[in-house]
Design goal:
Blueprint: E1 3-7, H1 12-22, E2 28-33, H2 40-48, E3 54-58, H3 64-78, E4 84-87, H4 109-138, E5 145-149, H5 156-162, H6 168-188, E6 194-198
Parallel strand pairs: 1-2, 1-4, 2-3, 4-5, 5-6
Helix pairs in contact: 1-2, 3-4, 4-6
């Protein structure tokens, strides 16, 4: 029975990944949320899963200790193994209006620094925290796969060709996340791991968005 951990599973792409994985009764899916009790969309997917094969776990990628706790709970349920890790957590800050700013459009360097540091914690360090927490379980799994949900906005060629100057903090820190994926791929290849970053393209997430402005994930 394949086991999956989906990190960042409360809405959008992560939620849909959970729903589709849960449709196969042979799968067991562990879905993380920063606040399980408030994750109503995830609760609905869990309730509607035909095989009741989805388990919600509380964890925040900024808090590496919470991911370790989630990994321990999965180990208890699976005998210490995990087959596939899908890291989907990301920060796109609509609330303060900074999401669509370019590098020259912040009102101050302090505001830019604060936005970039928070984005880096989630989009870059979050991926490291996630992989490191679950790596001992993945080493005992049967498939040894790590998937990071990335974005074309983190690719230099795409940004250059499209002339995209906005989304500065998001694109820069997701570009760093792509390097995180590459570093893990190089380190783990001799152990038989497959590590990949996948960009889903423009995805309409309005149905489960936290904000009415979140009509799509660009790239």
């Amino acid at each position: 029975m394949p086991t999956y951990a989906v990190i960042g599973a409360t809405r959008g792409v992560g939620l849909e990944i959970v729903r589709q994985l849960a449709a196969n009764p042979d799968n067991t899916v562990f879905a993380t949320a920063r606040n399980v009790e408030k994750s109503l969309h995830l609760a609905k997917v869990i309730q509607e899963a035909p095989a009741k094969n989805v388990v919600a776990l509380q964890a925040d990628v900024v808090d590496h200790r919470s991911l370790k706790v989630a990994a321990e709970k999965i180990a208890q349920a699976t005998g210490g193994a995990l087959d596939v890790l899908i890291h989907n957590a990301a920060k796109m800050d609509y609330a303060n209006g900074n999401l669509y700013r370019s590098l020259t459009e912040y009102e101050s360097m302090d505001a830019l620094d604060a936005e970039f540091i928070e984005a880096f914690k989630v989009n870059t360090l979050g991926a490291i925290h996630s992989v490191d927490a679950f790596l001992p379980l993945l080493r005992k799994g049967s498939t040894k796969k790590i998937v990071i949900i990335s974005t074309d906005g983190g690719e230099r060629d795409v940004v250059w060709k499209t002339g995209t100057t906005i989304l500065a903090a998001y694109c820069v820190t997701k570009s760093a996340e792509n390097m995180v994926m590459t570093k893990y791929a190089a380190e783990l290849v001799d152990e038989g791991f497959i590590v990949a970053a996948i960009s889903p393209g423009v995805v309409d997430v309005s149905g489960t968005a936290a904000s009415p402005r979140m009509s799509a994930i660009s790239w």
